[in-house]
Amino acid sequence: MKMSDRKKKILQIVVDEYINTAVPVSSKSIAEKHLTDVSSATVRNELASLEELGYLTQFHTSGGRVPSPQAYRFYIEELMEKGNLSDNDLDYIERAFSEKSGDVEHLIKNVSRVISELTDYTSVAIGPHTDEEKIRNLALLACGDGKALLVIVTGSRILRDSFIDIPESMSDEELSNASHVISKLFEGKALSEVKEVGAEVLDEFSQYRQVMSEVIDALKSYTRPRDEDVVLTGADKIFKHPEYEDIDNVKNFLTVISSKDRLAEIIGDEDDEIQINVKIGSTGDAEVPDDCSVVTATYSAGGKNLGTYGVIGPIRMDYTKVITVLENVGKALEELVGNKLKDKKDDTKHE
Amino acid sequence: MKMSDRKKKILQIVVDEYINTAVPVSSKSIAEKHLTDVSSATVRNELASLEELGYLTQFHTSGGRVPSPQAYRFYIEELMEKGNLSDNDLDYIERAFSEKSGDVEHLIKNVSRVISELTDYTSVAIGPHTDEEKIRNLALLACGDGKALLVIVTGSRILRDSFIDIPESMSDEELSNASHVISKLFEGKALSEVKEVGAEVLDEFSQYRQVMSEVIDALKSYTRPRDEDVVLTGADKIFKHPEYEDIDNVKNFLTVISSKDRLAEIIGDEDDEIQINVKIGSTGDAEVPDDCSVVTATYSAGGKNLGTYGVIGPIRMDYTKVITVLENVGKALEELVGNKLKDKKDDTKHE
DNA sequence: TGTTAGCACTCTCTATGTTCAAGTGCTAAC
DNA sequence: GTTAGCACTTGAACATAGAGAGTGCTAACA
Asked: Which domains are assigned to chain A?
C-alpha cells in the first residue's frame, strides 16, 4: 500500500496533535479541526489503513489513535516542519553564552543547563572525545607516599588527572626534571598517538623508565569518558510530562539516568558525521529504554569536536522544539568558540 | 504523663514492626505476637495514650498505628538495639576496601557505593572540608590564550583545579618560574591561612603580582564544595521501599537529589563533633524534606577529616541497619587510612 | 486501680452493576 | 471514492453493598 499525500497529511496531524495534547487523536477531531473538506468516516478509513501500515496503534477500540515509534521516525524524516525559537528563547541563549566561558567543564554544564531549560526535558551532555586532543602541557606533582599526580592540559582545555606510582626514592627535584622531560616529549602529540610510543623511547629515557611507563599507561586510559564527563541536568523536568505520572515510567527513567556509564553509552556511541541523532524507543542496536527517546547533537567548531549534547524524555517528545533548540545552541556555541579561535589567531598575528 | 516501661516496650514494638513491614500496627498483633501476657484491649489503652503523647498517629480509625517522627527520634535515642552485620556484609566491606585505594575521589565513590549497596538506600557523600587541608604542591600550567591551569594537591590528596588569567606577555619560562616561587610560598600552608596573606607579600613578589593575586583568589574559592564533590549513589534504590510507589514522594525525592547544591546543604552542615547525625522529616532547621530522613556520619582518621557519608530515604528507615553499616564502614575506613599513615611513618623512619 | 471481654462504630477495600460518552467498524447508499 | 447512519466496544464515573480490620467505649472483674 502506498502512502498517499492525504495519508501523510493525516499522519502528520495525528503526531502533531498527540505531541501537543498527549491525548489519543480521534477521526472526528481531525475532520473537524484540520481536514474540514472530508468527513470523519473518510478519516476513519485512512486511520485504519495507517494502522495496518504500522504507523498508528490504539490502546482500546474506542480510544482514538496514537502514533507508533515508526510514525515518529517517519515524522522526523519527512513530515516535521522546522520551527523557530521565540525571541525570549533566543535572548536566553545569548545571555547564557555571553559570560566569560571559563573552561570546558563549565561550558558543558552551561550548555546542558540551557538545553534543559529551553526544552523542558532532562538534558545529558558528554564532553569531547579526548582521543584526538593534542597534549598542550603535562606535569607531575609530588604527593609524597610514593605517589605523584599527573595533570594533562589538552588543546581545548580539557583537563585530566590521575595518580601514578613513582619510586619512593625519587626526590622532588628528580620528579620535577622527569616532569619537564616527559612534558617536552609529549607536547603537541595527540592522546591517540601516545599508544604508539615504542620501547625505544623508553630506553632512550632509561633514567625515568618507570615513571614514563606509568605516565603512558595513564594517558592510554584517558580515551574513555569518566563519570565526571557525563553531565545530567534537570532530571526533575520529567514531571512536566504526563507520561511520568506513571510510576513504572519514572522507575525506568531513574534507573537509566542513575548510571553514568549507561548514559554515556546511550548518547556517546554515535557516528561523528551525524549532526543530529534521534533514537526512538528500542531500536535494537541502542540501549535506549523502550519508552524513551534520545535526541542528541554533536557540536564542533573550527574542526574541533565540542562534545555531544541532547535530551532524554518520553517518546512523545516535542521533536520540533528540541531539534530547533539544539540547532540554535549549536550555532551560538560555534560563534562563541569561533570568535575565541579568531581572537587567538589575531593574537598570533600581533606577535 | 510518664512513659512507663510498658509504654516504651510497646512503642519499640510498633516502630520495629512498622520499619519491617511498612504496615500500620494493630493492638491485636502486638498482644498476640509480642506481649502475650496482656490482652489486646490493654494494649489498645496504651496505644491511645501513646497517641496522645504524640508518638503515634493513625491514618484512619480502623487502620492501626504508625510512628510519628517524634517516635523515631525517641526510638533512636533510647529504644534501638545495636545490630550486627552479617558475615556477608562484613566480607563485602573488607573486599571493597582491600584494593589499592587510589585517590580520595575514588575512595569517596567507593565508600558511597558500599553504603548504598549494604543499606539498600540512596547514598550521599561529600568530601572533606578543604579549609584545613595543607597545601602539598601547587603548579601553574600554561594553556595558551592568556590562561593557565592552577592545580593544587593537598595533604589527603584532595585535588582542586581551576583556570586563571595570566598576562598574555608571560612566557612559558616565566610562568614556570612563577609557579615554583608561588608553590614554595604556599607549601605547607592550610587553605584557610591563604586568606591572611597580606599585601606585603604581594609587594615582595611584585614581579608576579598579578598571577599571585589570581592564585590567591582561586585558593579562596576552594573552601566551598564543588558539584563534583557531592557524590550520589544508588538513586534507583528508593524503589525498593514501598513509600516510593507513590508518585508524589518520588517527585519530591528526585527534585531534592537533582540539585547537588541542595544535597550539599542537607548533609554538609553538621557539627564536626557529632559522629552520627540523624535528621528525621522537617526539623525546622534542616532542609530535609518532610517525608525524608537523612542519616550521616562524619569520618576521620588520624585527626584527618575524611568527609561525610550517609543515606537519604523514607522516614520509615531501617535505622539500626543504616547506623550499623555506617559504623562498620567507618571502622574499616579508619583502619585503611590508619594503616596508610602508619606505613608512611615507617617509611620516614627508614630514611 | 488496672485489666479484660464484648460490642457498636468507623473506615477502607473490593466487587458489582449501571449509565454515559467517545470512538470505531461496517454497511449501504450516493 | 466518499459519506451518513448505526450497532458495537470500551473505559470512566458513580452508586451500592458487604466484608474485614481495628478502634473506642462500657461494664464487669480481680
From this structure: 5-79 (1.10.10.10), 87-129+226-350 (3.30.450.40), 135-221 (3.30.390)
